[in-house]
Design a protein that fits this description.
CATH superfamily of one domain in chain A: MetI-like
Strand content of chain A: under 5%
Largest sheet of chain A: none
Number of helices of chain B: 14
Structural class of chain A: mainly alpha
Strand order of the largest sheet of chain B: 1-2
Distance between the termini of chain B: 36 Å
Order of helices and strands of chain A: HHHHHHHHHHHHHHH
CATH topology of one domain in chain B: MetI-like fold
Oligomer: heterodimer
Strand content of chain B: under 5%
CATH topology of one domain in chain A: MetI-like fold
Radius of gyration of chain B: 26 Å
Number of strands of chain A: 0
Mean pLDDT of chain B: 85
Shape of chain A: globular
Helix content of chain A: 55-70%
Radius of gyration of chain A: 25 Å
Largest interface: A-B, 112 and 113 residues
CATH class of one domain in chain B: Mainly Alpha
Structural class of chain B: mainly alpha
CATH class of one domain in chain A: Mainly Alpha
Distance between the termini of chain A: 33 Å
CATH architecture of one domain in chain B: Orthogonal Bundle
CATH architecture of one domain in chain A: Orthogonal Bundle
CATH superfamily of one domain in chain B: MetI-like
Largest sheet of chain B: 2 strands, antiparallel
Mean pLDDT of chain A: 83
Low-confidence stretches of chain A: 1-25
Low-confidence stretches of chain B: 1-16
Chain lengths: ~300, ~300
């Protein structure tokens, strides 16, 4: 535990000796300040978590249990009736599959085109490079919310409305992804690339065999954020998915909850299932996610 | 930059090697990204500006109306109500979320046991789909059987209509927004705090400054650049808010929590459709977001200069 804490505390040693972090304070009783801080933090964390924990617990309750007053904390039994019910009475499997397809395909596409563009912008001199880079930066200021209607018109004229491609392709060329990857690629040594060129490697080979493997940390950050964003995305899929057959999970949940024809216990079970993949991803990749967010403030 | 390949003629070259490949390569590399980018961002952005001067009844034939869309939208009471709601939401959301995130990051920055777990707990809502966030809170804030009012009634505080009273609904929307985003902004601030030289705080401590004085006069001023980034990000997030409100209040009661993005969505995609008004509102929203981002850029430059 204390080792974990020491690792957490290690920061870039700015000036002073970093050995200071190995403190002996564990042996002394904690000061009042520490107790107050810890208490505030723990109470706050519990308040933050209550709605989620409550939703997860309630997703096991039957309809009558959910309606009972006062509500019970724990379900009578941890049955999976709601989950099997949700799976069997709606095309829940279909929505889940649609969400997986959109998330995976969009993330792969984003990584592919963003990293190629970033490589060209970082490591080549070509006419129009600075213009393209500035154009990319400038559009960080144009969120999809601002251009919903004209983008929809383009998608519609390409016949992509009501298709998963219509959800996957339009937001794929993320300016932030290009920017982040370009900044990372600038740090790669030119000599390595030049040496490969002398050895006869083609331009794409260099990119694929040398540049991409070296960029793994930056690619991981872009991938994780793409997955979280696409899995939870709502407004764009809502506009594109007009038939139930192409609903993603958030669209299905929003539609069902607003119609109020679907029993709430099933909606809850679906909600909990929809949370799981991203939470599992977070637990596995927590370090990269925290590092990625930390960069946001470090411009 | 020396083009070594040209001077070594006998070397084996890859299929796309050589000067020609090297010249062409960057264009091929940027092409897919720029194609999608141009088709689905640049062109629509220009076109969106253009169609804000047109109107259409069916979405197929458009007729030029000049600045009528803007004149119409600025005359509409409904639009001004949406603007008022949006500004109320953004100001309250940015203020409360930033203050909460600063407090949280200061607390998390201390040497505490189990800090990783606490950090994860505060971050968890960031990961949940806003649609699910809205669903859960809509259920928790239900007047009679909701979790919040069950607890309040048990301690004798009555049953406020969190989502039924217009003002309480706006307050609830702000709080749910805070709940969703505070962990994210706190992590950005935490990174800023960890970049501050601990010696400065220590020196102030040796000079007899109390913990609060050190926070107030050493840490917070040094945290200013990061705080500024957070304020900008929160402002943009606030102006774009839509998803969680869709399932939390649906924009109600009687439009009290209908913000600008929902208004644009409904004008453009839910009947009665008003393409012209939706486009005009979009352009106005863009101007606001652009202004905020540009102000950020100016301030950041000034901060760098000093």
């Amino acid at each position: 535990m204390s080792r974990q804490a020491a690792v957490d505390r290690s920061r870039p040693a700015t000036g002073g000796g970093s050995g200071r972090w190995v403190s002996t304070s564990d042996r002394r009783p904690p000061s009042t300040g520490v107790v107050v801080r810890s208490t505030v933090l723990v109470v706050g964390a519990i308040l933050m978590l209550i709605p989620i924990v409550w939703a997860v617990l309630s997703s096991f309750k039957s309809r009558t249990e959910l309606a009972s007053r006062p509500p019970s904390v724990l379900p009578e039994r941890f049955g999976i009736d709601n989950y099997t019910g949700a799976l069997s009475s709606f095309s829940f499997g279909q929505y889940f599959l649609n969400s997986v397809i959109v998330t995976v395909a969009a993330t792969v596409l984003t990584l592919a085109i963003n990293s190629m563009a970033a490589y060209a912008l970082a490591k080549y001199n070509f006419r129009g490079r600075d213009f393209l880079f500035l154009l990319t930066l400038a559009t960080i200021m144009i969120p999809l919310q601002v251009i919903l209607l004209p983008v929809y018109q383009v998608v519609s004229s390409l016949g992509l409305v009501n298709s998963l491609w219509g959800m996957i392709i339009p937001p794929a060329a993320t300016p932030t992804g290009v920017f982040l990857l370009r900044q990372y690629m600038l740090t790669l040594p030119d000599d390595t690339l030049e040496a490969a060129r002398i050895d006869g490697a083609g331009e794409f080979q260099i990119f694929w065999r040398i540049v991409l493997p070296l960029c793994r940390p930056a690619l991981a950050v872009v991938a994780i954020f793409s997955v979280i964003w696409r899995w939870n995305d709502f407004l764009w899929p809502l506009i594109i998915a007009q038939d139930e057959s192409v609903y993603t999970l958030p669209v299905a949940l929003a539609r069902f909850s607003s119609q109020q024809v679907v029993p709430f216990n099933l909606v809850l079970a679906m909600s909990v299932l929809s949370m799981l993949p991203v939470i599992i991803l977070f637990l596995l990749m927590q370090r990269q996610i925290v590092a990625g967010i930390a960069q946001t403030g470090m411009k | 930059m020396s083009r070594t390949t040209t001077e070594q003629p006998a070397r084996r070259r890859g299929r796309h090697g050589g000067i020609k490949g090297r010249r062409l390569a960057p264009y091929l590399f940027v092409a897919p990204n720029m194609l999608i980018f141009g088709l689905f961002t640049i062109w629509p952005a220009l076109n969106g500006f253009n169609i804000s001067f047109y109107d259409s009844d069916d979405g197929r034939t458009f007729s030029f109306v000049g600045t009528d869309n803007y004149a119409d939208i600025l005359r509409e009471d409904e639009f001004w109500e949406v603007v008022r709601n949006t500004l109320t939401f953004v100001v309250a959301f940015v203020a409360f979320t930033t203050v909460a995130a600063i407090a949280l990051s200061l607390l998390l920055n201390a040497q505490l046991r189990g800090r990783g777990i606490l950090r994860a707990a505060y971050f968890l809502p960031v990961l949940i789909s806003p649609i699910v966030v809205g669903l859960i809170w809509n259920w928790a804030l239900e007047r009679q059987v909701g979790l919040v009012n069950t607890v309040l009634e048990a301690v004798g505080l009555g049953q406020p209509g969190w989502l039924l009273d217009p003002q309480l609904a706006m307050g609830s929307t702000v709080l749910v927004g805070l709940w969703t985003h505070v962990g994210f902004f706190a992590l950005i601030l935490l990174a800023g705090l960890q970049a501050i030289d601990p010696n400065l705080n220590e020196a102030a401590g040796l000079d007899g400054a109390s913990a609060w004085q050190r926070t107030r006069h050493v840490t917070l001023p040094l945290l200013k650049p990061t705080t500024f980034v957070v304020v900008i990000l929160a402002t943009i997030t606030g102006f774009q808010a839509f998803d969680f409100i869709y399932t939390l209040t649906g924009g109600g009661p009687v439009g009290a929590t209908t913000l600008i993005v929902q208004n644009i969505y409904e004008q453009a995609f839910v009947s009665p459709i008003e393409y012209g008004l939706a486009s005009a509102a979009s352009v106005l929203l863009f101007i606001v977001i652009f202004g905020v981002t540009f102000a950020n850029y100016l301030f950041a430059r000034r901060a760098d200069a000093t």
